[in-house]
Write a structure and sequence with these properties.
Order of helices and strands: HEHEEEHEEEEHHH
GO molecular function: electron transfer activity
Shape: elongated
Radius of gyration: 18 Å
Number of strands: 8
Distance between the termini: 21 Å
InterPro entries: Cupredoxin (IPR008972), Phytocyanin-like (IPR039391), Phytocyanin_dom (IPR003245)
Structural class: alpha/beta
Protein name: Blue copper protein
Family: Belongs to the early nodulin-like (ENODL) family.
Function: May act as a carbohydrate transporter.
Length: about 180
């Protein structure tokens, strides 16, 4: 079954719009992007990251990349034991757990400062008026996105995209869309 690219683009735009209501996209380095010689510690210290936010890296894909590593990999600029890697030049990474994340450039840029560590906090509790609305919405038969469950909507959309869209392929197989959002 084939789905036209314009329908997929529209669906993806709706998905981003719905998920952005509760999430922030933190562009690493802001307008300077992911490049050598930038103080990413200072940048990260001026951000507040919450579960469900995105961290995105913008860079020349022929020169740089991004690896999610542990503290040792971060401290030593090594990719051994990396738990994720990206190389599109416009990478959006879901921060789905409250913990410290470590990212480095694996092409040598780490030694020139291309590394960033971010602490992700649990979501703050909703305002008391929103709690009452959420309790009544949970009983609703509305789809997850309409109930405010952006992550649930992302998961359902990624499954739909993998089954009916053009989300399969790539050298590693599986659904590229699901893997990009941490569902694969």
């Amino acid at each position: 079954m084939s789905t036209s690219p314009s329908i997929l683009h529209l669906a993806f735009a709706v998905l981003l719009l719905l998920s952005s209501a509760a999430a922030t996209d933190h562009i690493v380095g802001a307008n300077k992007g992911w490049n050598p010689g930038i103080n990413y510690t200072l940048w990260a210290n001026n951000q507040t990251f919450y579960v469900g936010d995105l961290i995105s890296f913008r860079y020349q894909k022929t020169q740089y990349n991004v690896f999610r590593v542990n503290k040792t990999g971060y401290d030593n600029c090594t990719t051994e034991g990396a738990t994720g890697n990206w190389s599109s030049g416009k990478d959006f990474i879901l921060l789905d757990k409250a913990k410290r994340y470590y990212f480095i450039c694996g092409t040598g840029g780490c030694f020139s400062g291309m590394k960033v560590s971010v602490l992700v906090h649990p979501l703050p509790p909703p305002p008391k008026s929103a709690v009452a609305a959420e309790h009544s919405a949970k009983d609703s038969s509305a789809p997850p996105a309409a109930r405010g469950g952006a992550r649930e909507f992302l998961e359902l959309f990624s499954v739909w995209f993998c089954l009916f869209g053009s989300g399969t392929g790539g050298s590693s197989g599986g659904c590229v869309f699901s893997k990009a959002f941490g569902f694969g």
